DNA sequence: CATGATAGTCAATATAATTGACTATATGGC
DNA sequence: GCCATATAGTCAATTATATTGACTATCATG
């Protein structure tokens, strides 16, 4: 790999590879525990649901995929025992998605793997720079939102 | 009013969404110019080749996909007029991939879109924090490399 | 000049995402 | 209350992308 700091590697490429560090670590930890049947975006969904239940429609928007794709993804995760779906009694169009026990176990492993990376990272560069990085990432996300057709 | 979020959004999620800002902006700019037939990882390949030619094997390693997938991706990009392939005369197993004129034009648009985001970002958070963010991302990438089971 | 490693292809298959057409529920104007 | 419209999600078909396995060609080494 080019260890030349002379030119600046494009930020999108850095983001891509940085994200891979988390993805690979999480997948490895999950596979270790027997959770080796989680499809690509499944990590995102499980990670999001670890913070609490969510309506499918929210998952759709966060993933930025078609609702059909999100539906299929959730189908797969339900089929493999990670998620439950239940109709929201307040609005019976709406599906509320939650983690099963298996899903919770997978989420825990995933979170532990993430926190291990986080800790290693903090030891490497310090908490201050990580805060700055978070700020930069949040700004990027805002920039993306402002330039979107859905922001009206 | 300290607007610190009650919970910290996981870094991988931030990375995902931040990257999307670039991806969406680049795709929009390219589509505007008539370059609307670039497959998913094509942006990465074109962006990488904008810095100079590269052997296919390097693209394979950087993308972290199977060589077949990378081959198909390059196939598609050659077919659509973005890339040229030529056999390396020094090592005739090796394919050197370069941008065509159309590919160069697309790369220029893509880079302009990236730099527009970069500029907006810098105006928003300042150069200092961006340097810190780059440092953090580089550290994450290193962590990923060190935790890898050999280089495939 | 045999052996093994590297670079890439071909064919088949699997996985994932999209589009288009549809059902069911809810909301707001009148 | 009732109709029009919007929202939430499904079903089916297709396209796009990636993977695995088996193979060819070239190169490097002893």
CATH H level, superfamily name of chain A: Winged helix-like DNA-binding domain superfamily/Winged helix DNA-binding domain
CATH class of chain A: Mainly Alpha
Helix content of chain A: 55-70%
Number of domains of chain A: 1
Low-confidence parts of chain A lasting 5 or more residues at pLDDT below 50? none
Number of helices of chain A: 6
User: How is the biggest beta sheet of chain A arranged?
Assistant: 3 strands, antiparallel
Describe the structure.
- With 152 residues, the first copy, chain A, is mainly α.
- Chain A has a single domain, classed as Winged helix-like DNA-binding domain superfamily/Winged helix DNA-binding domain (Arc Repressor Mutant, subunit A, Orthogonal Bundle), CATH 1.10.10.10.
- Helix content of chain A is 63%, strand content 8%.
- The first copy, chain A, is built from 6 helices and 3 strands.
- The first copy, chain A, has helices spanning 11-32, 42-49, 56-63, 67-79, 101-125, 127-146, and strands at residues 54-55, 83-87, 95-99.
- In chain A, strands 1-3-2 form a 3-stranded antiparallel β-sheet.
- In chain A, helix 2 packs across helix 5 (101-125).
- The model of chain A has no long low-confidence stretch (mean pLDDT 92).
- Chains A and B meet through helix 1, helix 2, helix 5 and helix 6 of A and helix 1, helix 2, helix 5 and helix 6 of B.
- Chain A binds a DNA duplex (30 and 30 nucleotides) through helix 3 and helix 4.
